[in-house]
Each structure stands twice: as structure tokens, then as C-alpha cells.
Amino acid sequence: MEICVELPSARLGLLEADGLGLAPPDRALAQLLSEVCQQKRGEFTLESLAQAEATRAVRAMFRAWGVDPSRYRPSSEALLRRVVQGKGLYRVLDAVDIANLGSIETGWPYGCYDRSRIHGPITFRAGQAGETYEGIGKRSWHLAGRPVLADGEGPFGSPISDSTRTRITQSTHDILAVIYVPLSVPTAAIDWALDRLGERFSQYQGARAVRSTIC
To answer: Which residues contact 13 (CB under 8 A, 6 or more apart)?
Structure first.
């Protein structure tokens, strides 16, 4: 799968994981997530997080899109702020936890989508006037001028907040994960993040096949 990238200053790491099993919550994954969160709490304060290399690069990427990252916070920074403040993460499903774990480790926004609910070619572009979607945990999300992933039915994802249409559920078997990466990041670092993501989908979710690419 490929995505047409229309917005500047970004590359997308894509990973497709097929045949995820419906397993109970994995204790080893929960323990790993707890350990990484504890590590980040020891590594950052809110002030030092704002000055971290990854935070600054992602914020610069947002500004290149004409989006104020202080008003519309990148999902990665929002996760890390919760971790640093000791608020913990919202635990939903292991597949979502895996994506959140990668986002916390890298400082880049991750999106995780049910591939069966995506229809037609995908484009990463600016939202158009009048476009909205029902955001996860939010009311209707107005998308004009904001970065979005869109398929033949319209926008479904964003490095800010994703939609309910393509959200991961207990019946999801095939996933598209997207990593929103600043253009300055070396390809080797993106490959590393994709490899780790794929390994975790295989280890903790029993994915039968994993494919990755960079756009």
C-alpha cells in the first residue's frame, strides 16, 4: 500500500499487519509499556520535553503545514505529556497500545487503522473547507487546513486525532499503521521504527504477515 503525500516536510512510514488474533490483553506488553513510561518520566520534565529534538522536529513539521502545534498538539507530544505528568495512558486494545508505545519511544505521531474500513487510494493532504469527522473521544472534528489522511470516502486519520470510522476494534484483523515522520529523520531510523512495530504486532498480536514501506 502507498500513500500520496501532498504536504511538505514529512515522510510516512507505513506498516500493514495481517491476520491479527483476538487474544486477551498481553501481560508482557503491559509490563513493557509500563517500563517505557517510567523511563520517560525519569528522562523528561514538561519543560525539557518541549526542547527535545523529536518534539522540536515534529512541531516544525506542523508549522510547515500551517498548523500551530501549541493549539493543535501532535498526538505524540500529547501522549508524552500525559506520561511525564504521571497521568498514565488510556488502555484500549493491545494493537493500539503497540502503536502508542512506538510513538512514546520515538516522539513521532503514530496512527493505527482498520484496513477493512479504508476504501480507495489514500492521500495525505490538508483538510478542505467543510470537511469533518467524528474523532475518537471527541465530538465532530473540523478539518479545514489540518493534516489528514483521506481515502475515497474522505478523511479518516490525522497526526492530531483519528476518526471513529477506521478505529481499531476487537473485530479488527488487518491493520494499517502510519508513522508521521519529519523530513530530516534518516531513513535508517524510520526503518528501525517500522521493524520494531512489525515485530511487536507479530509477538503480541500474532500477525501472520507484515509489510512495510516509506513514502
So the answer is: 178, 179, 181, 190, 193, 194, 212, 213, 214
Angle of helix 27-43 relative to helix 75-84, nearest 10 degrees?
80
pLDDT tens per residue across span 108-147: 999 999 999 999 999 999 999 999 999 987 778 899 999 9
User: What is the C-alpha separation between 67 and 60, in angstroms, rounded?
Assistant: 9
Which pLDDT band, with edges at 50, 70 and 90, does 186 fall under? very high
Q: Which three cell numbers stand for residue 106?
A: 520515538
At residue 88, does pLDDT exceed 70?
A: yes
Q: What is 3-214's CATH number?
A: 3.50.40.10
Residue 174 confidence class, pLDDT cut points 50, 70, 90: very high
CB atoms inside a 10 Å sphere around CB 121: 12
Domain spans in the chain, listed from the N-terminal domain onward: 3-214
Q: How many Å apart are CA 95 and CA 187, to the nearest integer?
A: 24
Go through 87-110 and write b for each residue having 16 or more CB atoms within 10 A of its CB, e for each that does not: eebeeebbbbbbbbbbbbbbbbbb
